[in-house]
């Protein structure tokens, strides 16, 4: 997802309603928005997590996902992170301080996804 090595997302992604909504959140990091979209599609298409919604995280200038693995279970925060970006302890803490368990998802340049519970 390195900005210099990644072209714009395919047209079908750019036209998707969820992607367009994300672009209106003015995150400022197109690589993170693209990572969010890939993770969103993986979770909703695979039906791994129910009721997935995007949540703005201004302190990280990022968009997080929020959802439940099963109905009635607590909400989880999912942080889609392009694999070329590093993350600092205080950034993780700002997400964990929201009071929900966190799932970190590293998104590789080939669109591979790796999930890690934090």
Automatic annotation (TrEMBL):
<feature type="domain" description="tRNA-splicing endonuclease subunit Sen15">
    <location>
        <begin position="38"/>
        <end position="117"/>
    </location>
</feature>
<dbReference type="GO" id="GO:0006388">
    <property type="term" value="P:tRNA splicing, via endonucleolytic cleavage and ligation"/>
</dbReference>
<dbReference type="Pfam" id="PF09631">
    <property type="entry name" value="Sen15"/>
</dbReference>
<protein>
    <submittedName>
        <fullName>TSEN15 tRNA splicing endonuclease subunit</fullName>
    </submittedName>
</protein>
<dbReference type="InterPro" id="IPR036167">
    <property type="entry name" value="tRNA_intron_Endo_cat-like_sf"/>
</dbReference>
<keyword id="KW-0819">tRNA processing</keyword>
<dbReference type="GO" id="GO:0003676">
    <property type="term" value="F:nucleic acid binding"/>
</dbReference>
<dbReference type="InterPro" id="IPR018593">
    <property type="entry name" value="tRNA-endonuc_su_Sen15"/>
</dbReference>
<dbReference type="InterPro" id="IPR011856">
    <property type="entry name" value="tRNA_endonuc-like_dom_sf"/>
</dbReference>
<comment type="similarity">
    <text>Belongs to the SEN15 family.</text>
</comment>
<dbReference type="GO" id="GO:0005634">
    <property type="term" value="C:nucleus"/>
</dbReference>
């Amino acid at each position: 997802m390195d900005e210099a090595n990644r072209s714009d997302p395919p047209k079908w992604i750019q036209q998707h309603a969820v992607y367009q909504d994300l672009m209106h959140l003015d995150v400022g990091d197109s690589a993170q928005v693209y990572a969010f979209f890939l993770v969103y599609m993986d979770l909703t298409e695979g039906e791994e997590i129910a009721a997935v919604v995007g949540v703005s995280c201004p302190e990280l200038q990022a968009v997080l996902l929020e959802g439940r693995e099963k109905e009635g279970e607590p909400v989880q925060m999912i942080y889609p992170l392009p694999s070329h970006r590093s993350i600092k302890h205080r950034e993780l803490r700002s997400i964990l301080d929201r009071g929900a368990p966190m799932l970190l998802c590293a998104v590789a340049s080939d669109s591979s996804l790796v999930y890690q519970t934090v």
